[in-house]
Amino acid sequence: MKIAPWAVAAVVVAADAYLCVKNPQDLDRLLINAMLALSAFATLHARLLSLASAGFAAIGAYASAIFTIKLGLPVYLSIPAAVLACAAVALVIGLPVLRLKDVYLAICTLGFGEIVRVSIILLPGLTGGATGANLSTGFAYEAMKKTQAWSLALALAFLCYLFWSASRSKTGRALRAIRENPEAAETMGIDVVAYKNMAFLASACIAGLAGAFYAHSIGSLDNGDFKFNRAVDILGYAVFGGSGQWFGPILGAGFLTALPILLRDGLGSSIGFLKDFAQLPNILNGLALMLVIVFAPGGIAALFVRRGERRATGPAKAMKLDALDVLAFAAVGSAARDSAARGLSAGGPGTFLSLSGVGRSFGGVLALSELSFDMEEGRIYGLIGPNGAGKTTLINLVSGLLPPSAGKIEWLGREIQGRKAHRIARSGIARTYQNIQLFGEMSVLENVVVGHHARIRSGLLAAWLRLPSMLREEAEARREALGLLGRLGLSGLAGMEAAKLSYGDQRRVEIARALALQPRLLLLDEPAAGMNEIETAALGDFIVDLKRHGVAILVVEHHMDLIMAACDEIVVLNFGRKIAQGSPAAVSRDETVLEAYLGRE
Amino acid sequence: MSAKRSILCAIAFAAAAVASAAPLPATIKIGVVETLTGDNSAYGISIRKGIELAAEEINASKLLGSSQLALVVADDKADKQEGISVFTKLINDEKVSAIIGPTLSGTAFAADPVAQKAGVPVLGTSTTAVGITAMGDFIFRDSLPQAAVIPGTLAAVIAKYKPQKAALLFQADQEYSKSEADVFKASLAKLNIQLVATESYSKGDSDFRTQLQKLFSKKPDILVLCSLVGEAIPVLQQAREIGITVPIVGGNGFNSPNVIKNAKEAAEGLIVGSSWFIDSVVPKSKAFVEAFRKKYGGDPDQFASQGYSGLFIVANAIKGSGSADRTAIRDALGKVKGLDTTLGSFSFDENRDPVCQSVPLTVKDGKYVLFQ
Q: How many CB atoms lie within 10 A of CB A341?
């Protein structure tokens, strides 16, 4: 298992190296395809099933050709100018198109490619129309040819560097989080829409760059160069190589481009039986793609990522405090206090969190109605009620995953209903989920570091420049995250893939991840589900400890022991309405509550 | 010192003399680059058949003495990058003396400059776009460009039907169809026939009735259709179906046995212009059709004929120059005059474009016959 991926990579590299030496045109083609594959990767990796790369490559190719022929721009200006043209188009079409999901986006972007192709035909004055544009006349074609492969290789290497450095930063982590679970990413303070837009823009620019190089590599263009089947080919490279790691699509393009050429050169379509099997390379390429999709759905790059390493032995450890954990834990509390001190809250004491008349209906079903209650800073609130009472709906409303259909939610003196979830998360509300929503393929540690997203200031530029401040911030986030994991008794599991953890451990990772946001309010949706008695009790102690450090908590739970022991106040819901509110002692004696939920002994 | 130099000179002279008088090498490699896979493979496969038949005949008849032609066939997949790539390979690795192909003009625009730069003669047998031979002095073709065929065809139509008004249908996103339509438009204008309506369709369309109805409603005296073989058949059938009875003039795509075979009676009366047709009375052509049927068991089309003649033209250039040298072959190709081929008497003009007959044809009783 460990030899196979390196053998694959070695074969691909060797085959491609052979091609480069044999035939400069094949080298051009390889590099351009790798670039196109990176373009498809940029969108796929951000969970966008876009087929727009071919269309953008066409725009890049024609724009660069037109800038060169009509405006007389030198090649090294016309190529960047073409990339800018693609960026402009991407910004315009990205806005409406990126709202679409999955197959709808795929179809829409295919339509985009067709619009580009038809536009090329309908603008004969600019593009040569159906007969195409010819660069080889009146253009420094020969001079360009000589430096072409070098500049292409350099451009690709530069792109690889950008992807590599971005993948080791906040940006890469945010994109991985989005790829695995956009909803959870959003509630970790990641602006999913902005990142998707960025990915689409990057994809368009890279495709445009590849297209521009293509134009100068070939010297003549027509509308058939980037039609439908190219769009599918490009997606194929990215899927074959894998959309998880940036080097995947490069391997994919390398393999799928090299195979037919090697077959052609090695066996020769004029030799023997192959003469009558001219389609053989296509069939083999299709077969290879199918095999990879069936047996290695993550693409060939996924084979390089070691999975399930360092599985900690023994059962889940009881939570304990050691010196380091206390330190990290103190950091959580002090941050909560700091953010309060920074005056994020304009309002006075009383308006920490306030719900008034909040309702939410799904179709005709009222999940919540006329719900009003206030929360004060630094207290623990329990939310109980039978299944379907609307508890999770309430948490979704407060965390911004759903907008309320009626009523007002005030947080720190501002109305937040309808606000985007990532903004609410950044303002200090973190949550966990009833159905665990971890980033399953990421390590436990990385899951928690995602929680630091909003606090890491170094952006993409800092990541590309690998500024010391960025490296420091990353190291700091890691250190803190490790501390948090220690606090939750997960130190030994930091390197594990999150999905491989036990149910109870996954719940604790979710709590650690939420705490990494340094929230002032923590929403816990059935945190003890799947935990045994001892673990539940430890969780209760942990929650109380959190409160002491200044974090307010709203906890939904069916473990009444936990609720009774930890909560300062309890809200009881039944059929979407609040039926009681008060201290644990008062609620446990309340007739309506006994009737509806707790039952009589 | 001076004795040494004179000896060297003598050796050099001797070597030069041997080179010039050397017989042709035992095998001469000719590259054949055609579209053998994908949407346009029908053309490439047909051409390859014609060329392979020609190679067999040339080698069997000892046209080049003891020297044999060896074909190196490559598939350009109708892809520009692949075209450049296989051209490079044939030139650098296979050391071919000349290349026949590629099938499509688009590929030629990308790949031919490679051969031009390397000084390898290229003969296109199906490229008809404007500007192909303008790419350089090593680029030839034996396929008549549309501009050389269409005026003659229209002149014959005028002589018989005296049309005043014409309507035209073409494929807007297809290079060949589009440029053919442009030539038709220019020729109609020159011949004072009014173009009353123009309609177009796109790749993948299969219902052309709306466009045909629109054209028909303008009451043209003739209908001009520019389609590739694939669309030519349904276009023709649907035109007859909606009751168009005026003479139909087809572009090059309509000059294929497939059109008659599939469109059947809808093809009757269709008028096309071509450098070749299956019942051509040119003696070479008769022999070619017979040999083709014997070898492949089916009828050749125009592309097979042009491919077949293409290799004969190259072989005669090699024979004429007495050399397999690329430049010598190029020079000899330039001098081809009145060569007897399936396309009739064949010459290249000063732009390396073909000079050969173009005959107006019509379909009668399921056969192409001379239009008179």
A: 10
- Mean residue pLDDT across chain B: 90
CA distance A33 to A50: 17
Homologous superfamily of the B147-274 domain (CATH): Response regulator (3.40.50.2300)
* CATH annotation of B23-144+282-355: 3.40.50.2300
**Per-residue pLDDT reduced to its tens digit, B244-253:** 999 999 998 8
Q: Considering the entire predicted model, what is its pTM?
A: 0.85
Beta-carbon contacts of B367 under 8 Å, excluding residues fewer than 6 positions away, are B260, B278, B279
Record the tokens describing residue A246, joined without a space.
């940036």
Say what the pLDDT of residue A267 is: 58
- pLDDT of A540-592, one tens digit each? 999 999 999 889 999 999 999 999 999 999 999 999 999 999 999 999 888 88
The answer to whether the Cβ–Cβ distance between B85 and A129 falls below 8 Å is no
User: Using CB atoms, which residue from A32, A121, A264 is nearest to B173?
Assistant: A121
DSSP state of A139: S
Contact A275 B73 (CB under 8 A): yes
Q: Choose the mutation target among A142, A222, A271 for the interface with B, i.e. most B CBs under 10 Å.
A: A222
Same domain, yes or no, for A190 and A274? yes
ipTM above threshold 0.85: no
Rounded to whole angstroms, how far apart are CA atoms B293 and B285?
Answer: 12
> How far apart are alpha carbons B300 and B292 in whole angstroms?
7
Tell me how close the Cα of A235 comes to any Cα of chain B, in angstroms. Answer: 18
Of the pLDDT bands very low, low, confident and very high (cuts 50, 70, 90), residue A308 is: very low
Nearby residues of A74 by Cβ (< 8 Å), 6 or more positions away: A68
| Identity of residue B139 | I
Q: Is B36 on the interface with A (CB under 8 A)?
A: yes
B129 to chain A, closest Cα gap in Å: 8
Residue ranges per domain, chain B? 23-144+282-355, 147-274
Q: What tokens appear for A475 in the block?
A: 């190291």
Nearest CA in chain A to B106: A222
Which residue from A minimizes the CA distance to B85?
A25
**In whole angstroms, what is the distance from residue A89 CA to residue A84 CA?**
9
Main-chain phi, psi angles of A142, to 5 degrees: -65, -45
